[in-house]
Amino acid sequence: MSTLQFLMDGFGVAFQWQNILFAFVGVLIGTAVGVLPGIGPMSGVALLIPVTATLTAGLPPEAAAASSIILLAGVYYGAMYGGSTTSILLNTPGESSSVVTTLDGYQMARQGRAGAALSIAAIGSFVAGIISLIGLVLLAKPLSNVALQFGPAEYFSLMLLGLAAVSGLAGKSMTKALMMTVFGLIIGTIGIDAVSGIARFTYDLPILYSGLEFLTIAVGLFALGEVFKTVLERDHEAGAIAKVGRILPSRQDLKDSTTPILRGSFLGFFIGVLPGAGATLASFFSYITEKKFSKTPEKFGNGAIAGVAGPESANNAASGGALIPLLTLGIPGSGTTAILMGALIMYNIQPGPLLFNDHPEVAWGLIASMFVGNLMLLVLNMPLVKVFAKIIQTPKKYLLPIIIAISFFGVYAVQYTTFDLYLLLACGVLGYMLVRNDFPVAPLVLALVLGPMIENNMRRALTISNGDFSIFATKPISLVLLIVAAAWLLVPLLLKFKGRAIIVNEED
Amino acid sequence: MSKTFDRFAGIAFLLIGLLFVLESRKISKSSYGSEVGPDIFPIGLGILLILLSARLIYETFRYQMLQGETEKIQYGKFIVLFVSAGLYAALLEPLGYVITTFSFLLIAFQTMERGKWIQSLVIASLFSFGVYYLFAEFLGGSLPGFPVF
Questions:
Q1: Is-contact A88 A114, C-beta < 8 A?
Q2: Is B64 within 8 Å of chain A by CB?
Q3: Which pLDDT belongs to residue A53?
Q4: Three-class SS of residue A26?
Q5: What is the separation of C-alpha B24 from the centre of its chain, rounded to a whole number of angstroms?
Q6: Helix (H) or strand (E) holding A191
Q7: What residue in A sits closest to B53 (Cα-Cα)?
Q8: Nearest neighbour of B112 by CB, restricted to A196, A400, A421
Q9: Diameter of chain A by CA atoms?
């Protein structure tokens, strides 16, 4: 069957009434998550996994997986749309990938052009979403065919590369990022060993036999960590919200932002495909590029529409691009895609090259639903932007306790143990303390998801080679991947050594 | 970012690494004939974690602390919230979802900000009853709803 045929089948899945509903709920919640400062896409997706798990409980397993991943991905890219709203209206980015949007977006709002900025952000996000989806459709098959040639040694090296990329770019201190990665890998070994069936580090506690649940740890570290942070630190209320004004952009605005949107989309897409470099980095790069290409660079920072159009397209395209390594190789490149991967694994669906053959309904259904979801977001964001702007005013008094309650409900409804609730609380405190001290938590979650797979592939490869570690260096693809992984960690170190400033990726 | 925390974290993670290395040695050898048993991976990781932690502790002696203005930390609210969340977890099974959720939300709302009792009561009851009925009755999920006497 051709790619087109698969895509059409995917639309067949995406247009089932419950999936349209799921996509709609996903993008709606995603927009809200993006608008609310304090909840990023990562905690939003983590919080909703348990909720979707219960919503889809009645469906057959594959359909349930398709529906919930449609909703969760909707939250992910929906948040990219919503994040711009607060950046423009409040000068407060709703999530880290919209930080640069504040530079020109807020200036535009002060000049009374908030409506134009918001609609250009929405249009740019839409165009970028579609472009990155087309890229995803075109690259999915060839890439997964390449990955099918991979043996355990190649897989091991590829996953190591994924971890290295995320650790190399996360946070200010690479030592800390690497520590978090190794810590994630180590706690991933708790439980029954999948290869030999021997219990490790369980101390005869039955609750530990299945290992520490990824979901509990992710929700605790991200969602609760963020809640605790807000309770402990941020007391100040948000400032005044700028008036939205006329929503439709003028013809001149459209003309000025066409090229930045296209450039941002392509740039963002390719940055998104790279593991470790996420939406935040994409938006920064796009802003710098637009400033460089602009005929009037002095306008940047004073309300240049290109400074909104480019980055907002780039972060959306990056979120689409980030799905490529996840779906085709089974390697998440960022914290949020790691969580999406955890969700797929919960449904016993292994992302990776076989996904497109074994579960075409899930893979192509998701891709097709993203076309639908992006269209919904465009419609939602243009006329309803004033409604979403109101969400910012949700008092923290109600918001924070309800987030705690949703986390509790979600974890308990999936795990049915009080132990996981205590673990959740502990991870919340841990998440707060770690993030406050520049220990990035995204590598931890990524390592926790990848850990068992890395170990299994390593041991399979070593079994093939009779315990000879040189198998990783003698297989050419594996060697290349290992070299790239090492370079990813060493190059920033060398640059730092030479006194160059390096851009780091904030959590996204 | 604080030097004390980094040092403390460095020591804590070093001990965790050490624990995993020592405990891994107790794991019985693999039975299926491979030379690569279930202990290699955790031992390797433990050693890595020890090395990285040592590096972090070493780094804390190197860098200069930039003491920025620290935000005022409100421990009071947090402790009340955390303790009530702990009680919520402990009492969820014996007392049931609806009662514990309702009380937790009410306490948390009032801890965050005093006043507006009626609004707090309405939101807390809507959430606790709403989630329970939607989940347990409508979706057929299983939650301990009310105390069983």
A1: yes
A2: no
A3: 81
A4: helix
A5: 25
A6: strand A191-192
A7: A179
A8: A400
A9: 70
